[in-house]
């Protein structure tokens, strides 16, 4: 037992010495550009470990997809920042956000019961699209419009998957419509129309909730409409079989004797 404790202490001591030596060399600037490559490889290796855990134990360790893809995105961000050309270096943040979103999407594809993962995944991909548009230099596209349209498409896709998921997710059409309208309006010159759209959208949503017809159970509706209910079949009479008493042979013999 004492030997095992000594071995563990030695291993932890060696690890601490290696880390201390690495940070000391990094402070002195000896590594230079290789330090970025080292951290990129380190985060990539850690992300690969989490992804291996996720792929081998999907049903129990589905959460490992989030740190796995996040660490891979961080490794890509460091690599882009140090070694990529200036244009691609500006897209490192988009790659990082898209990697986190890919982790949530992977959770959904492995188990469709986790449909909620579509929402953060779609939002992160939308934010990544905003970063790409903002750094592209294209004045035609509005980053805010891209964000709202991306989120609207995410909720719209969630509503369309109600049949596939066998779950009522049609409520997602409401935020999808609101986000898409906002994105389209921002994309057009009629940005000032947002002051009118918000109140109208609230009034429309309230009117839908007030005027929609609630579903009533069939048995309750039959009773309330006054239609006669089906009569129960008459119960069969419970008739007990008649008991027939047999004469006692002793009495038959005794009776003629008495008459004599």
Can you walk through the features of this model?
This protein is mostly helical and 260 residues long. It has helices spanning 2-28, 34-56, 65-83, 86-89, 92-110, 118-136, 143-160, 162-165, 173-187, 194-211, 218-224, 249-259. The protein is flat, with a radius of gyration of 38 Å. 71% of the residues lie in helices and 0% in strands. The longest helix has 27 residues, at 2-28.
How large, in whole angstroms, is the Cα Rg?
38 Å
Mean pLDDT: 74
Annotation, overall tally of beta strands? 0
Residue share in β-strands:
under 5%
| Helix-strand category | mainly alpha
How many alpha or pi helices? Answer: 12
The shape is flat
State the distance separating the first and last CA atoms: 116 Å
Considering DSSP H and I runs of 4 or more, what fraction of the residues is helical?
A: over 70%
Largest sheet: none
Order of helices and strands: HHHHHHHHHHHH
Stretches where pLDDT is under 50 for at least 5 consecutive residues are 216-226
Overview in brief:
The chain is an all-alpha fold and 260 residues long. The chain is built from twelve helices and no strands. Helices cover 71% and strands 0% of the residues.
């Amino acid at each position: 037992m004492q030997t095992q404790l000594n071995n563990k202490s030695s291993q932890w001591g060696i690890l601490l010495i290696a880390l201390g030596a690495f940070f000391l060399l990094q402070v002195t600037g000896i590594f230079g550009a290789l330090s970025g490559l080292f951290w990129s490889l380190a985060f990539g290796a850690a992300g690969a470990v989490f992804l291996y855990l996720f792929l081998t134990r999907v049903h129990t360790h589905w959460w490992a997809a989030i740190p796995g893809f996040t660490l891979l995105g961080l490794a890509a961000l460091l690599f882009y920042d140090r070694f990529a050309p200036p244009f691609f270096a500006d897209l490192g943040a988009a790659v990082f956000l898209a990697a986190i979103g890919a982790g949530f999407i992977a959770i959904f594809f492995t188990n469709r019961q986790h449909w909620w993962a579509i929402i953060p995944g779609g939002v992160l991909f939308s934010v990544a699209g905003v970063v790409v548009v903002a750094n592209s230099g294209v004045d035609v596209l509005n980053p805010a419009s891209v964000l709202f349209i991306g989120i609207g498409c995410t909720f719209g896709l969630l509503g369309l998957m109600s049949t596939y998921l066998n779950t009522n997710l049609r409520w997602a059409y409401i935020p999808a419509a609101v986000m898409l309208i906002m994105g389209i309006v921002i994309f057009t010159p009629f940005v000032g129309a947002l002051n009118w759209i918000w109140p109208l959208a609230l009034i429309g949503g309230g009117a839908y909730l007030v005027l929609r017809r609630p579903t009533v159970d069939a048995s309750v509706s039959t009773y309330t409409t006054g239609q006669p209910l089906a009569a129960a079949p008459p119960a069969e009479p419970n008739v007990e079989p008649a008991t027939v008493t047999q004469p006692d042979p002793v009495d038959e013999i005794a009776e003629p004797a008495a008459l004599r």
